[in-house]
């Protein structure tokens, strides 16, 4: 088994290789404006570090968000094109699940990432492998009472300390965590637990239907 | 000829997901998935809607193109992609996909210019471009006169619109006339039954002191809207066919007049017309007429190759390979305002290093 995992749903551009036992190589760069430029070189470097060609990959793993759209699509389309060319499956995982796995907590907690526009993407977890709710997008103040007393993992927590006083690390997504989570599921024969490799946008596209055309004749 | 470069091209600068495959100047496949219907109710292209549609359509459209061409991806000599100009989020989907395909297949990647691709596509229809080529590019996003001594390396802007693109004017007038979106095809159709001389609409930037090769359609648009509003205010019917014909005539009159003048001024005996508006039947007819009188040979691709498509990107990519132009790097970025003079986006390293790096060592070693 050789898994290549990528995630571009958050400001982190991250790639990792996992052989089913351990992470062979991984890297992350945090730059919310350059997902498109950074991802392929990152993939190239983790393969080079492990000394393996892309053709040796047996499974692709991709974070499907939720995340701000433009960057999110970079990882998804890259994984889809790799999957089609290599003829290997593309497994989708909720990006928040990667942060939850990396947090390694055994108690109930929340993962929250930055959704911009003063909102967070978030979900509740029973422990680091068990998500309890569907991912949602909300203003921190609107969910602060409901989540009071729970640790909040991810940049969505640290960004809003007044709503989330118990913010914890890790702050950023890592493909290494995503790959480890996926490797565990594949080893357990739990392949049905993956999501389709399609984006979780959680918001409708911004689009105003133009009103009737503007009258140009001066009144 | 089997030794001509076999190139796959990806185009996602606006609302069409286009994947074309060419061998040299021969078109093998031209697969398109369009999101135009999803934009119609908004009256214009919504960038986020377009980007979402590109992501969904990307891999199926590539697979369809390969099947249609009857070639194997491993036989490709390169992958070309529109690096710009265009909608940033839309371009990013195509650029990311092209990189992934090129990397997985161990093929060189060519990030190319959308406007140069619109010109180069004519090689698939009429054979190698004369050098230099004079090109009039008109669409919903661009209206430019370009002189191209070498389509892979040297494209010079002579003039461009200073306000709206020609296609944008068609869309706006169609909206005033409540004809829906996109406006070009419906105005073309109605204009055939109208009188192009019925209303004397203004010809922008055609005075003796105006820039000879620049265009302006904003004043025309306002003038047409005012004319219609005056009719409506007076409780009269709007003669839609005559308005469409007279408006369209004003647009294509200026476009063809300036293009033919540029050919004469520069001593160029060929004129190429491309872009979505080049599908307009009156533009094609008037250009044919004026070019013939001026002794200029007109080259206009069939309408399906004038609108945005992947074949045009593949055509320019094949030319890049044929002329040994350096490939792009893996950190190629989508550039929504890529200047027309940047025919492609070469990598920073020596071409031989690059070819070595992407040598066929990924999938088949
Ligand atoms: Zn175009």
Automatic annotation (TrEMBL), chain A:
Domain Gcp-like: 32-144
Superkingdom of origin: Bacteria
Coiled coil: none
InterPro entries hit by this protein: ATPase_NBD, Gcp-like_dom, T6A_TsaB
Pfam families: TsaD
NCBIfam families assigned: T6A_YeaZ
Protein name, entry field: tRNA (Adenosine(37)-N6)-threonylcarbamoyltransferase complex dimerization subunit type 1 TsaB
UniProtKB/TrEMBL annotation, chain B:
Compartments, as annotated in UniProt: Cytoplasm
Positions of the Gcp-like domain: 27-314
Basic and acidic residues compositional bias, start-end: 354-365
Enzymatic class: transferase
InterPro entries listed in its UniProt record: ATPase_NBD, Gcp-like_dom, KAE1/TsaD, Peptidase_M22_CS, TsaD
Annotated binding of Fe cation, by residue: 114, 118, 308
Cofactor note: Binds 1 Fe(2+) ion per subunit.
Keyword vocabulary terms for this entry: Acyltransferase, Cytoplasm, Iron, Metal-binding, Transferase, tRNA processing
Residues engaged in binding substrate: 137-141, 171, 184, 188, 280
Keyword tRNA processing on entry: yes
EC number annotated for this UniProt entry: 2.3.1.234
Cofactor dependence: Fe(2+)
UniProt cross-references to PROSITE patterns, sorted A to Z: GLYCOPROTEASE
Gene3D superfamilies on file: 3.30.420.40
Chemical reaction(s) catalysed: L-threonylcarbamoyladenylate + adenosine(37) in tRNA = N(6)-L-threonylcarbamoyladenosine(37) in tRNA + AMP + H(+)
Pfam (any one): TsaD
Region entry Disordered, spans: 345-365
SUPFAM superfamilies to which the protein is assigned, alphabetical: Actin-like ATPase domain
Family assignment from sequence similarity: Belongs to the KAE1 / TsaD family.
Its biological purpose: Required for the formation of a threonylcarbamoyl group on adenosine at position 37 (t(6)A37) in tRNAs that read codons beginning with adenine. Is involved in the transfer of the threonylcarbamoyl moiety of threonylcarbamoyl-AMP (TC-AMP) to the N6 group of A37, together with TsaE and TsaB. TsaD likely plays a direct catalytic role in this reaction.
Stated name of the protein: tRNA N6-adenosine threonylcarbamoyltransferase
């Amino acid at each position: 088994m050789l898994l290549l995992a990528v995630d571009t749903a958050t400001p982190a551009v991250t790639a990792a290789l996992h052989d089913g036992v351990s992470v062979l190589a991984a890297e992350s760069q945090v730059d919310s404006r350059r997902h498109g430029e950074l991802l392929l070189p990152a993939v190239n470097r983790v393969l080079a570090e492990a000394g393996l060609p892309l053709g040796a990959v047996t499974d692709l793993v991709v974070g499907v968000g939720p995340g701000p759209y433009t960057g999110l699509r970079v990882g998804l389309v890259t994984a889809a094109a790799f999957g089609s060319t290599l003829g290997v499956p593309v497994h989708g995982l909720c990006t928040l699940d990667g942060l939850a796995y990396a947090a390694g907590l055994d108690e109930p907690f929340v993962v929250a990432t930055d959704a911009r526009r003063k909102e967070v993407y978030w979900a509740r977890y029973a422990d680091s492998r068990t998500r309890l709710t569907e991912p949602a997008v909300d203003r921190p103040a609107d969910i602060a009472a409901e989540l009071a007393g729970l640790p909040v993992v991810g940049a969505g927590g640290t960004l809003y300390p007044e709503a989330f006083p118990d913010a914890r690390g890790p702050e950023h997504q890592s493909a290494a965590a995503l790959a480890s989570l996926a490797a565990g599921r594949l080893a357990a024969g739990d392949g049905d637990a993956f999501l389709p490799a399609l984006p979780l946008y959680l918001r409708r596209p911004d689009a105003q239907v133009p009103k009737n055309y503007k009258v140009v004749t001066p009144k | 000829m089997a030794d001509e470069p076999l190139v796959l091209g990806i185009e996602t600068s606006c609302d069409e997901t286009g994947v074309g495959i060419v061998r040299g100047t021969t078109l093998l496949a031209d697969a398109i998935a369009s999101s135009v219907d999803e934009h119609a109710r908004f009256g214009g292209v919504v960038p986020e809607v377009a980007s979402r549609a590109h992501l969904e359509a990307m891999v199926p459209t590539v697979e369809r193109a390969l099947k249609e061409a009857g070639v194997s991806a491993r036989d490709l000599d390169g992958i070309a992609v529109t690096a710009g100009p265009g909608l940033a989020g839309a371009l990013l989907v195509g650029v990311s996909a092209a990189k992934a395909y090129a990397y997985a297949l161990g093929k060189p990647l060519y990030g190319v210019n959308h406007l140069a691709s619109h010109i180069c596509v004519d090689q698939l229809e009429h054979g190698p471009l004369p050098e230099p080529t004079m090109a009039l590019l008109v669409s919903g996003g661009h209206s430019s006169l370009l002189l191209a001594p070498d389509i892979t390396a040297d494209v010079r802007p002579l003039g461009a619109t200073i306000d709206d693109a020609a296609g944008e004017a068609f869309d706006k007038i169609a909206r005033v006339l409540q004809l829906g979106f996109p406006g070009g095809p419906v105005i073309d159709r109605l204009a055939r039954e109208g009188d192009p001389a019925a209303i004397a609409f203004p010809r922008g930037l055609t005075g003796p002191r105006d820039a000879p090769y620049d265009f302006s359609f904003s004043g025309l648009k306002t003038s047409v809207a005012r004319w219609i509003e005056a009719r409506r205010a007076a409780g009269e019917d709007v003669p839609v066919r005559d308005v469409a014909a007279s408006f369209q005539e004003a647009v294509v009159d200026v476009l063809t007049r300036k293009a033919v003048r540029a050919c004469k001024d520069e001593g160029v005996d060929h004129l190429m017309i491309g872009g979505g508006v080049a599908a307009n039947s009156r533009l094609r007819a008037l250009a044919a007429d004026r070019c013939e009188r001026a002794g200029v040979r007109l080259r206009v691709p069939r309408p399906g190759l004038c609108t945005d498509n992947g074949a045009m990107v593949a055509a320019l990519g094949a030319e890049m390979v044929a002329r040994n132009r350096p490939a792009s790097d893996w950190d190629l970025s989508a550039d929504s305002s890529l200047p027309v003079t940047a025919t492609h986006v070469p990598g920073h390293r020596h071409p031989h290093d690059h070819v070595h790096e992407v040598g066929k060592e990924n999938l088949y070693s």
